[in-house]
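Sequence in, structure out. First:
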Amino acid sequence: MSTAPYGVRLLVGAAATAIEETLRLPRTILTYPMTVASQIAQLAMKVQQDVAELVNKGDETLENLFPPKDEQPEWATFDEDLPDNDTPAAPVDGVRLTEGRFALYSDGPVETKARSNGSAPTATAEVPPIVEDLDYPALTLAQLRARLTSLKLADLEALLTYENLTKARAPFQTLLSNRITRATAK
């Protein structure tokens, strides 16, 4: 084995590498667009990371120069701000105050009162037997919907009247009214 000068070996090695790469070019040219795209995406993410690091460093510096005020708006109250002796509101005169979205799922005692022309309650109404059979005051909307198909028209009307005279929950009233309409249409 003869030892060629360093410069000659370098040139022969470069020429051999160029020939090999030229022969591989048809196979690798298909991957170049994806390689370039991934390198551009990598560069973009690196720039975003660098920018985010600069912003964080700026936040820390500003926080050291101008410490934040630990203020809470007067209108904001949090559970940990309340005294420990606070208890949930008790029922007023035995009536649960369930309004809004939680009224659908309330299972408290129901006062049955008849109303005249939408005014204040005037007299206690009689509870229909279907209300007691179904345990209607404890039913959720989904449970009532599941039982509607087995009820007769008279029972549906009694439930609607009972609902109107007691809690008057719109979803329950709508469900019962729609079922009555479908039952009478048959």
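Second:
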Amino acid sequence: MRWEDYRQSENLEDRRNGGGGFAGLPGGRGGVGIGTMVVLGLVGWALGIDPRILIGGAEMLGVGRSAPTQESRPASGPPQDEMGRFVSAVLAQNEDIWTKILPQQANRRYEPPKLVLFSRIDRSGCGTAQAAMGPFYCPEDKKVYLDLSFFQEMQRKLGGGGDFAYAYVIGHEVGHHIQNLLGILPKVNQLRQRISERESNALSVRVELQADCFAGVWAHNVQAMGRIDQGDVDEAMRTAAAIGDDRLQQASQGVAVPDSFTHGSSAQRTRWFTTGFKSGSLQSCDTFRTNQL
């Protein structure tokens, strides 16, 4: 993925202890591991992202009342480390692409989210942000939260890695922001309050798969800019497969339980990313009106 010459986003908040703490791209030296807490969160909760956080922050609000938080201040100026600049450039690409295609395809002006880089623990509009939760989008403050050590854990523990794979993760979270702008997340959150846990899980799968499809739409446009090749797309596909609920449950408990899926199987996640990538159209991403996920 070619990103080094791209502009830096003005919507990145660097709260990582003065803006550093992660030298080099994942896999290189200088990263700080987050130990057992992250590993258990990744395996036990499908990358540590409770879907209730994504569509209303219910779980995080509960945590936020009792868990300690870290006071942090955004660093002044853009990130100076390589990974910080990478995230900033990917965020800028999302801004440029969605600013163009969201009005065209959905008649909706794009309002870019903030992306918060933090270390270990921080505060969000949905409550406490913890590294063990993995990357997440908070609809309450319209911000994406990311601890960069997640990418190292994703590479070492889950078999998904590479710069475009990490960009796909960011694109997926921005996809949740698109859902929020389109009014999808508020409607889903209201519906979940009236249905069973099994039905709620199934609804969460549709939310997550649509975010994967939106990430594919973004990737379609990145390819049109000549900034990715087939190898980059393969990275994203391997990552989508690595974070399927079936693969994660097989790894953690030896058996997959479809009724408990909250993000979708490996096949579903790759299928919906591919759908958005091939079409470049938001209309192809309606996961709520199909019986074939």
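Remark: The chain has one domain: 12-285.
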